[in-house]
Structure formats: C-alpha cells, structure tokens
Amino acid sequence: MIYGLLGVVAAFCAFIQWGDEIPMPHMDYNKKAAKYELNVKKQDEKEKFEKAVLNRNPSGYMTVEEYEALSAPKDRMKMEVEVPKIPTPADMIYVPQPAYSIERYNNPPGSPEITLSKSFYERRQQNAQGIVSPDFTKLVYPSIYYYPNSGSTACDVFVIKLDKAKTNMDKILTANVVHRLSEPILSTDKSNDNYYTFRTITPIDFSADGSKILLKEKVGNTKDGIWKTTPHVYDFKTKTSYSLEDVRSAITYYWAAAKDLDLEDKRWDITPLGFSQKNPDWVIVTALAYTGEKPVNLGTWAISYTGEAPRLVSTSNSGNSISMNGYKLVKSGVVSPAISEKEAKQQKRIDRDNQKQQKKEDKAEVKEMKKSYKAKVKELETEYKESQKDYNLRKKINGSTEGTDALEKYNEIREQQAIKAQEKLKKQKEKELRNLEKQEQKAEKARIKAEEKAKKSGD
C-alpha cells in the first residue's frame, strides 16, 4: 500500500514539473491510445515473466544472445568432479564397489613401469598410473599416444592440482584430467617417421619435500626392445627440467678405462631408483649389461638432480638407501555388500531430500517472479490512472479557463492533490507503526506470561 502511494506522490511531482505547458486536448482518441499503450506494456511484462519462468530450465529454443551467454567458456579448473561409482544396471541388484587404499608409489625403488591396456591401440591414447606428491597437493601422470600410420608412440607428462579442502582419498579419487594444467612438464619427441619406435616417460618418485620429481624416458623399438633409458628431473619451483644423461656417459667411460669394456658394442641400460635418502639432491641409478644369459652388474651410480657430477657409489646394489616419497591409489578389494546397500539407501534418501528442496526453492523462485511481475503491472496501471486523471483535469480546466489563469489553476489543484496524497501516506505510516507496537506489546505479554508459568512449574 505504501509503495503504491509513493508512486502516486512521484507521479504528482512529475506532472507539476511539466505543468507549465498544458497541451490542448481536442479528441478523446488520446484516452484510447493511452489504454492501448497500457495493454501493450502489460503484455510485454507478461511475456517477460513467462519467458523467465521457462528459462529456469533452458531448452534448445533461444535467441542467439541467450545461446552465446550459455555457451560461453567456463573455467574448467573450477568444475566439480564427483567420486566415481560403478553404476548398477537395471537388471542387477548388486554390483561390487571397489575399495581403495593409498600406498607408496616407488616400492620397491625403481619398480614403476607403464602398462598399456588392450584398448590402447584402438583408442590411440592412454593415461597411465599417476603419482601423488608427499603433501597431496598435485598428481603427475603420463599420457601416451599411438600413431597407427607408423606403429610408434609418444608421451607427455601432465600435472593435476588437487583440491585442498578434501580428504587425501577423495583428492585422488576426484582428480580429473579436466583440472590438469594445459602445458606438459615433460614431453618426448613427437616425430613418427621411424616405424615401431616407442617413446614413453614414467614417473619414478618425488623428492622428500615434493619440489622435484624424477622420471625416466624409455626409447626403443617394438621389434628390437629397449634402446636407451634417460633419467630426467623436473623442478616445480623453477619450472625447469634437467636431463641426467651424463650418468650414462660416466658409466661407459668408467668401464672403458677400468675394464677395457666398450659398452657401445653391448646391450646395456640403467634403472633410476629414486632420490637418495642421505642426500635428497642426488639421484641414484643402477646399470646392467645384457651380455649373456645373466645380466652383469655395472654398479650403482649417483648424479645431482641438475645432471652434474656423476659418480660411482658402489659396484653392487646393496647399501644404498633410497627414499620413497610419492603415493598411489591401489584397489585393495571390494566394499562389503551390507555397506554398499546402506550407502545406496542413504544416497537415495539424500537424493529424495534434494529433490524436495529443489522443488521448494523452484516454487519460491516462481512465486517471487510472479510477485515482481504483478508489482510491475500494478505500477503501470497506477501510472495510467494518474495520467488519465491528469488528462481529465487539464481537459476540464482548458474548457473553462484560458491563458495564465488555466496554468495557475492547474498548478493549484495539483499541489492540493499532492498534499492530500502525502497526508494519506503519513496516516498510513502511522497506522502501520501503531500495529507494529501492538504486536510487540502482545509478544512481550506472551513472553512474560510464559516466564511466570515456567517459574511456577519450577517451584
């Protein structure tokens, strides 16, 4: 009621401002035009309201502007990913849900390898096992690509930042490629002109503080086996990768000088084990020569993470302490059917409650939209009534008075009407204040009565 009176007062003030120029109405078609214009505006508001109600659940029928607004790029890093669940088909009652555990990734040291699935050559891409940093802030995983025209493979290594607000288990379960950083931290050669050549990069382990990661790049041929393994270290602080290939040169030089053994004529390779536990800035590798039925040990070697100062640690594989820092997710079994059934019932109840809440919120939203629509229509009708009232007044004054007398009389009547409207508004406010005071007094009496009743019952 108050808002309607405020609109009337505002309309009075507006008419007084332009009342110094009273038009000369001669035909009643002005009223018909004003009524037609009111109906057009009300129809526009009705269409806006109906369109807003329909757009709560957007359909394929929309304008170009609406389509562009809905199809605008979204920040993929902020997209929510749920913990994956194996769906239950309609013809089955129970499907075993896998149980997971978090275990050390590089255990035993140097053991991580990429295992290609049977569908790799059909899909032509595979994301291999990832390794999680010691502080559970990032996950590093290799992505392998297959080129059927040459039968060769290549590889990139990507980083996914994990959600800090979740538990360690949920961080890994909800890690998704949609959240990965766009640029890989390490890549192999992408040329595929050599037939059946494979190039892969396997993460080995993080450093103890999680600032660096050791990886091994394998190059070989599916018809001939592995040709060479090269260790790499990526520093997350400086965003720099270092090749540790000098350790291979040191091994070939040592055996050529000490034993007069030319490893270039032999098949041999190295196995990066991880970061040294005694000195985290050093990487430990072992070397083996395949000169006969039994591999020959070429010693254990160390090299700095920047690829400098390679040295022989021992001629055997014993006595080398390797740190194990990274983590991986392992399927440890299946969830008990009783637990799965209980979780399914809980989820069903949660879904039902969510649907009820969503329906309630949707109903409240439509109600608010309808309330806004009716308020706008009421505002249009109030403006129309005021304009017609003012039109009739001007027409009446113009028929009985001429010249400046008509203008003075018009302004005088309008001022009187404005004063009456303000007085009416004032009375309405006073009435509402009195009603509010009565309600407060009533609530206070009820409170005092309740306290007295509680005191008597306590005695």
Indicate the topology.
Layout: H1 2-17, H2 29-54, H3 64-70, E1 98-104, H4 120-123, E2 125-127, E3 131-132, E4 138-147, E5 152-161, H5 168-173, E6 186-187, E7 197-206, E8 212-221, E9 225-235, E10 240-243, H6 246-258, E11 268-275, E12 282-289, E13 296-304, E14 311-314, E15 327-334, H7 337-400, H8 404-458
Antiparallel strand pairs: 1-15, 2-4, 3-4, 4-5, 5-6, 7-8, 8-9, 9-10, 11-12, 12-13, 13-14
What would you say this structure looks like, in words?
The structure is a single chain. The protein has 459 residues and is an alpha+beta fold. It has a domain at 98-337. Helices cover 42% and strands 23% of the residues. The protein is built from eight helices and 15 strands. The strands form four sheets. Strands 2, 3, 4, 5 and 6 form a five-stranded antiparallel sheet that branches. A four-stranded antiparallel sheet has the order 7-8-9-10, with no helix packed on it. Strands 11-12-13-14 form a four-stranded antiparallel sheet. Helix 1 runs parallel beside helix 7, helix 1 (2-17) packs antiparallel against helix 8 and helix 2 (29-54) runs antiparallel to helix 7. It is elongated. The two termini are 49 Å apart. Mean pLDDT is 86; it is low at 8-26.
Mean pLDDT: 86
Q: How large is the radius of gyration? A: 40 Å
Into which percentage range does the β-strand content fall?
15-25%
Could you say which overall geometry the principal axes of the C-alpha atoms support?
Answer: elongated
Main beta-sheet annotation: 5 strands, antiparallel
SSE sequence, one letter per element: HHHEHEEEEHEEEEEHEEEEEHH
Q: Structural class, judged by helices and strands? A: alpha+beta
Q: Using DSSP, what is the number of strands?
A: 15
Uncertain spans:
8-26
Please work out how many helical segments DSSP would assign.
8
- State the helicity in percent bands: 40-55%
- N- and C-termini, Cα separation: 49 Å
